[in-house]
């Protein structure tokens, strides 16, 4: 297949891209803003990132207009970073998502993203933040999180496919 004018010849798949920055550390917005400058026509979503004032300042300093990004605070964990936004991506006919998170966190994000985004035919493109740019000092020497987190959240993602639940709903209802 050959990409011509945004269409794949043979598959006729229009490529609509988005950038998804997974919240959890302020450096993710900074790295995401720098990545967005290299991809000037791609809209940005920040899922449960830093407080609005901080995120707005990061994007303003980078010269990114507020109409180009969405700050979404519905997610409570990595699984819900994806499940809270996948329907919106599908409604906007987004076919490809660049996912930005720390290097140590990316393997788990890839497992979840491949299940959740993949369930809607959306391709995930990982954009890991180099470990030396990481926010948490204790993670700078780690290459990735423990595999059990990926297994657990992969299972939660599959559960979400069949039930619409991530198990976090039950945890929040017990409080």
Give an overview of the whole structure:
This protein has helices at 26-38, 52-61, 78-83, 86-91, 106-116, 147-163, 168-174; strands at 2-4, 7-9, 17-22, 44-47, 69-72, 96-102, 123-129. With 175 residues, it is α/β, with parallel strands linked by helices. The protein has one domain: 3-Layer(aba) Sandwich (Rossmann fold), CATH 3.40.50. The strands form two sheets. The protein has a five-stranded parallel sheet with strand order 5-4-3-6-7, with helices on both faces. A two-stranded antiparallel sheet has the order 1-2. Helix 1 (26-38) runs parallel beside helix 2 and helix 5 packs parallel to helix 6 (147-163). The longest helix is centred in the C-terminal third of the chain and has 17 residues, at 147-163. It starts with a strand and ends with a helix.
The SS-based structural class is alpha/beta
Note the run of SSEs as H and E. Answer: EEEHEHEHHEHEHH
Distance between the termini: 52 Å
Shape: globular
Helix content: 40-55%
Task: Please mark out the parts with pLDDT under 50 across 5 or more consecutive residues, or reply none.
Answer: 1-12, 170-175
